[in-house]
Amino acid sequence: MFPVTATRVLFADHQTQAPATLQACVAATSGGTWLVTDQTPFHPVSHIWPDHPADRGTCDIAGVPYPVIGCYTGAVELASGQLFVDQAIPVKRSEPGWVFVVVHRIAETVTAQPGESALLQVDATYQQALSRGHSAGHLSSLALNQVLHHDFWRKDASRKDELGHYDFHGYAQTQSRVTEDCSTDTYRLGKTLRKRGLNSADLIQQLDVVAERVNMLLETWRQGGAAVTMRCEGPALTDSRYWQCELIPGSLITIPCGGTHVRSLADYARITVSFELKGEQELVMITRTAAADES
Question: Residue 165: which CATH number?
Answer without folding.
Answer: 3.30.980.10
